[in-house]
Amino acid sequence: MMAKTTTLSSEVMKKIILSYTYLAIWIVLSATVIVYNKYILDKKLYNWPFPISLTMIHMGFCSSLAFFLVRILKFVELVTLSQRVYLTCVLPIGALYSLSLWLSNSAYIYLSVSFIQMLKALMPVAVYTIGILFKKDNFKNSTMCNMLAISVGVGIAAYGEAKYDSFGVSLQLLAVLVEATRLVMIQILLNSRGINLNPIATLYYVAPSCFVFLFIPWVFVELPVLRANSNSLGGFNFDFVIFATNCLCAFALNLAVFLVVGKTSALTMNIGGVVKDWLLIAFSWSVIKDTVTPLNLIGYGLAFLGVAYYNHQKLQMLKAKEAEKKSQQDDEEGGVLLTEREQNGTGKKGDSMD
Fold it and tell me: What is the largest CA-CA distance in the chain?
């Protein structure tokens, strides 16, 4: 008995260590992609300020690798989607995703990494508000007060920002709004129909449509500038090694998402995201030398507490649902056993009467 308990506890410890290892890998890769994108797009660093082009390169690379993993290596089981589901569900999500990536990558040209992470704290507020509008969430005074606290915290952080740029803030806030809409639409269009796609399958279906959607504004917004600069003496450099490693990091991040969600949960990833934001703020301040003011930290600290409490509430709700589900299963099993006993008892009475 003692040996069995020891074996069980060692297996549990292995699972915990493995789960947190995957989470750590995801945090590192996510932070790497963010800093790498900032390095490429920032005019003071690599100076390649073409967010649509960078996003298209990512989508083209991810589409190719996803096709290779799904169709050639059979790395994941692919859910077959009908043409109607693809046109009515996947394409709208692809359009929102491409717009979200375009806007968020554009913000790196104007804002610091640390300030962008602070603005991203508004994501739960946007998701909850849009969820209420689309009747996917119920209005609760306590939750709305929490959302208000997060918003006030981000407002304080924005007020204390040393290098505030209104256009950059507008881009990032729009990116948060579009991304929140995409997350709610995934629940409405896919999850409600029982369609659950892992990150690799999602890339397989969504990345090509993102590439096509981005191609349209790229032709009018960035292609003329790229042509003009390629013809000039001071044209932009295109370093293949930098862009190839950037794309590999972006794809590896999606693989890490697949592992983290598979081994833990989406909620664990949200909590890990909070840790990642703090690490990025520290990295931005210490390595990139971005200015982080005391008011920034006070505001983001308030927003952080709100996000942490929101995640705590979600965890409690999940636990309550699991407990309710287990209780129902126990009741059903108990009902089946009772029915069997009654049938057996009836059978015995019938035998004695004979």
Answer: 107
